[in-house]
Amino acid sequence: MMNLQSETLRKIDEVIPHYPVKRSAALPLLHLVQEDQGFISNEAIEWIAARLELQPINIYELVTFYPMFRQKPIGRRHIKVCRTLSCAIMGGYRTCSEFQKQFGTGLGEVSPDGEVTVEFVECLASCGTAPVVLIDDVLHEKVDAERARELSEKIRSEARASRGNT
Amino acid sequence: MPAPEQFRLIFRHIDEPGYTNDLDCYVRNGGYETLRKSVARKPEEIVDDVKKSGLRGRGGAGFPCGVKWTLLDRKSGKPIYLVVNADESEPGTFKDRYIIHKDPHQLLEGIMITCFANKVERAYIYIRGEFPEGAKILEKAIAEARAANFVGPNILGTGYGCEIYVHRGAGAYICGEETGLIESIEGKRPYPRIKPPYFPAVLGLYQCPTIVNNVETLCHVRHIAERGGEAYSKIGTPNNTGTRILCVSGHVRRPGYYEFEVGKITMGQLLNEVCGGPLPGRSFKAVIPGGSSAKVLKFGERYKGKRKVGAEMVDYDWSLEDIPMDFDSLAMIGSMGGSGGVIVMDDSVSMVEALANINAFYSHESCGQCTPCREGSLWMKKITGRMVHGQARAEDGALLKSVADQIAGRTICAFGEACAWPTQSFVAKFGDEFKAYPESKKAKRADGVPDLV
Amino acid sequence: MIQPATPDLITVTIDGKEIAVPKGTNMIEAARRVGVDVPHYCYHSKLSVVGNCRMCLVEMGLPAVDPATKAPVIDPATGKQRVNWMPRPTIACATNASPGLHIRTTTPIVKECREGVMEFLLVNHPLDCPICDQAGECKLQEQSTGYGRGYSRYIEQKNVKPKRTVLGPRVMLDDERCILCSRCIRFSKEIAKDDVLGFIDRGSYSTLTCYPGKKLENNYSLNTVDICPVGALTSTDFRFKMRVWFLKQTSSIDTESSAGVNTTVWSREGVVYRITPRENDAVNDTWMADSGRILYKQIREGGRLESIRVKGSQGDLDHAAKAAAHLLSGGRVAVVGSGRSSVEEQFLTKKLAAAVKAEVHLVSRVGEGDKLLVTADRNPNIRGALVTGLASALPSASLGALGAQIDSGSVTCVVAVGEDLVAAGITAEQLAKVSVIYLGTHANPTSAAAQVLIPTLTVFEKHGTFVNQQFRIQRFARAVPAGPGATDDLLALSRLVAAAGGPWLGSDVGSLWATMASEVPALATMAYGNIPDTGLLLDSTPWAGLPFAEGPSLHFKPAAPAAKEAPRG
């Protein structure tokens, strides 16, 4: 059973009529479901396919094509480090290594403390302030290894605060 | 000759203290006045203005916007769609981001004027998934505009109506290709379409006539409608009219966005004066002038030939610093203006490693539909990857060029050229470095030089 | 004066050869007509055009005209209109005939394009030829030999993908061999209307698959195997069984239904290994149903009758004929003919019925049509019976009328040609009341009860013709020889006709046709050898009013609404 929040369902109902062809709502629905559930399960694929009168393969094709959709849960925070040319020549790979070292995690994994997943992404269109990092929905600019350390510390303190022990 | 001042047309209010992205601020600054005037005109007049203006697309191809609108099939009886390409993913480019986040109403006004001019009743803004804040900002802006009747069923009481919807992408560079974008909006894998027969102007979104325009281009439309096509065409240089936002990144002291009249600033003025020159102790080595798809230029090389100035053919003999930053000049000397993303590399960068980074990008982003790009981009990535992390051979440069030559011109969409040109130009201009790499890579890496792949 | 309709013909020039083709013809087809082969993978004449393999790149040119005056620009050297050749090559599959179009396929740039695409296709392709079923009919093999560079420059690691996926009950998938042409996806969506296949992941890692848990199991799944240009999709039934270059190809007809699907039977040394569709653009395009492909198994399976039996003891044809003569002489004979018999067999059956003044019954087989190639009428040749005059109406739902006649005693002898009476509605008690002469291929209650039992041939072991739902007469040929105990149907029937006091008509198809052409109005002026490979439409007007069971299917629209209940005989 898909346990989508009522707000998500409302938004789904609202977005489908934006398009003359139901299939177009596939991407918006995938975003909404992923924001709600944290990832796209097989159940979600089948649910979305049924809702849009499509076959599951039609949705499965999209989930695996677009890197922003994931089929497994990730850490509580999502750290995406740009690795394309401008960020790389300004030290993006060192930034990523620092994050990985800070949380003792490999790429694309959930860190041992469950707090982060660190991934590389392609150009985030902020090359003038390289290296850049997206943490969840917030862009951080000029993130060298030192700043990466600071941001990791901030993530950890935010985690402690949300757990109730400061 | 000193560099000219910036001409902040599109970016007038970016970084202006106190300027906010809400409707009130925009209207206070004269916003939507042009829309008000435009909906009282004949749509064909606005199309004419855009043609006269000489505006060329700012997304990368530099195709004349007025011509694109003229190619629309207006007789089919099918609805006409406008798709706004806000997928800004070309490496080195970072201009649409600021328009969307900081001055979204300028984009909306440009969209509405374009829609009115082309009798469009529904527009989709395809915004890349990695701009989640931007999507929210646009949706809020659209809601504000709708409340003020600048968007919606009855624009400013004229009876003309047009809706705008925001559609988020999910991390695919190929969605920046116009037909890939259309396929993505249709909910399918974004495989670009074969042209012929699927020209968007005839068989676009839902097989209806469609215009696909870049964010910055649509902002220019507002300014063209405001001051008139003739007047706009006087900005910039002949055939390269208006302004463009140049995005400089990499090894300069002051990277960032700078808006200049097209063709009125040279590469040298841009990099040395405006951007402060190379980092301390370094010297410029290479620059990619139009987003990573553009062919690389090598500092120290010269460009000679004849070019048309006015009615005459005139000799030119340029260093890299002399090149005017306009579409035609950059194309003439063997690169392109592209999306305006200027990536600067200094002497600390190994061109082999830089190419490995670029090849990794293209092979990751290849949609996989057609054989040359799908297999060729990955092959090139494996070669440069092997060169950097494994066994490099002196002949690998020649092999890379040969593979790239088999891709360009043979594919469904321009991604073939986009992934082939970097390899072709890097090997052509820095071939010696490729030949020497098997030995040179054994030397200890200098401190502070980051990995690129 | 009313002009007869002609297709718009447009002249295009391919490698200097001019040809006039209908408007809309693409350049692969046009080139084929002048004997020029344009290599391709993703293009298929019956599927939508996607242009993704890029193998069919050719040079295209248009006649040069003066931009101002539109007058042709003449090349002084040749005296002909100059051709402006496009700088970029274009794909032939998506280039349709337009006036003055010129195509070149033999220039250096086309050669380079082909070598380039071939090299790219082979870069991640596994070296599976020695173990791959597609060898010998593989487009990659053929086109790399014909158009490839001949050597590899690739020293990197090849992509690894799932290698033996059971995609469905009849289809095996090897993703490493797949060249991502998408023919199978387009077929499943556009023809089989079963949107179950798709590509996942991206770029060179793209992989063909079904959604987990779903299977490619519709009744047309094996067509994807036929159209797959490489050995990615293979038939599980045929897997590892035989190299295709050893196989002999014989043209045949699928007997599954009245669609009359054209087939090719592949055999070696008397053993059939597989059946594939044969192209007939008027009947089945390039498709056939999976259920028709396994029919070759009946050659050996299901209890094949092995020897002539007279009153339970083994005998020969003379014994059988003598015994039959005796049984038939008593009168009160009924003949049960078959919609699965060939036209020639039905002609002889009619002669037999006439000789013994017997009433003829046919057995109905009606199922649900799938609107594609399996029609509602599961007899392949009811119309043959109509054409030859063996029957004048469609068969009844069951043989109830015959059963009543048996019960009343007005029928004491039944000749059953290839039909099991019990399956058709005769009870065991009724069967016991009559003496049976049975001609057929497989054992069943009727063959067990027969006084005279003559084993005959399957469609794969004889020649003949069938008439399909379109009233198209089509030939089938012998693919494999029969076993020693079986008798050719025409020989058996002719002996029975003679035994019943009728004329000797011979068992040779050719000479039999001479007789048929003279006696059957619909077949007048025809000769067996002159029937084209794609069949010949007969005049169906004499039977236009009959309530045929078929609904619309591929290349067939019924003239009148299909019968809802079983037709009355």
Structure description:
The complex is a heterotrimer of chains A (166), B (453) and C (569). By secondary structure, chain A is of the alpha+beta class. Chain A contains 7 helices and 4 strands; from the N terminus they run H-H-H-H-E-H-H-E-E-E-H. A 4-stranded mixed sheet of chain A has the order 2-1-3-4, with helices on one face. The longest helix of chain A has 19 residues. Chain A is globular. Chain B is α/β, with parallel strands linked by helices and 453 residues long. Chain B has 3 domains: 212 residues, NADH-ubiquinone oxidoreductase 51kDa subunit (Rossmann fold, 3-Layer(aba) Sandwich), CATH 3.40.50.11540; 101 residues, Ubiquitin-like (UB roll) (Roll), CATH 3.10.20.600; 90 residues, de novo design (two linked rop proteins) (Up-down Bundle), CATH 1.20.1440.230. Chain B has 17 helices and 13 strands. In chain B, the strands form 4 sheets. Chain B has a 5-stranded mixed sheet, with no helix packed on it. In chain B, strands 3-2-1-4 form a 4-stranded parallel sheet, sandwiched between helices. In chain B, strand 5 and strand 6 form a beta hairpin. In chain B, helix 5 crosses helix 6 and helix 13 runs antiparallel to helix 16. Chain B is globular, with a radius of gyration of 22 Å. The model of chain B has no long low-confidence stretch (mean pLDDT 96). With 569 residues, chain C is an alpha+beta fold. Chain C starts with 8 loop residues before the first strand and ends in a 32-residue tail after the last strand. Chain C is built from 14 helices and 24 strands. Chain C has a 7-stranded mixed sheet. In chain C, strands 1, 2, 3, 4, 5 and 6 form a 6-stranded mixed sheet that branches. The radius of gyration of chain C is 28 Å and the shape is elongated.
